[in-house]
């Protein structure tokens, strides 16, 4: 299957759990070959939105399409690689066995040389791939998940908090790997609480607050709006104003 149309189109998604409205009228689309960062406080609905895109949760209203296919169809996910927020591989598998299993879902075989190179690129000792995952630290396990996500080599990547558990050097290595994927034509959609990383590598950002998309555009356009040089400080001002009914939205 070859990609066609936009990697992702989200049209008026609503989601609530009981009386709690999690997502309200969320609409945006991604451009081919861009890195898009999704920002929001804990519980803002970032992971819920990602689960809807992957058919792991149902929207109450609205729809999303991946390369033109409704996201609740298996075909929509054939061109997606995904790393969940809480990545937890089997502790009884060796690292390379986990990678082989992940690749098998896409009908692909493990290339050990490529796996070793990706391990180096992500600041992981390639020799640990021969060890059981149960012996890994949190950061090592996160790097294994990232290696798998990049190895399946799909044109659209969804990464939920990919920097979780990574030290500063590993974060730099991951950002370099993400930029290399973009240069190869892939589209990357990720969430993160580390706004300096989002500011550094994202072409555009989206901010979810109080269940709504309160900003869509570039970080460079966003920061001056609130007279801040830091994305973190501008974000805090933005959600303070949106709470009083003032929202910002740039295409």
Written overview of the protein:
- This protein has eight helices and ten strands.
- With 251 residues, it is an alpha/beta fold.
- It has a domain at 80-153.
- The protein has a six-stranded mixed beta sheet with strand order 6-7-8-3-9-10, with helices on both faces. A four-stranded antiparallel beta sheet has the order 2-1-4-5, covered by helices on one side.
- Strand 1 (8-17) and strand 2 form a beta hairpin.
- The longest helix is centred in the C-terminal third of the chain and has 16 residues, at 168-183.
- The protein starts with 7 loop residues before the first strand and ends in a 9-residue tail after the last helix.
In summary, what is this structure?
The chain is of the alpha/beta class. The protein contains 8 helices and 10 strands.
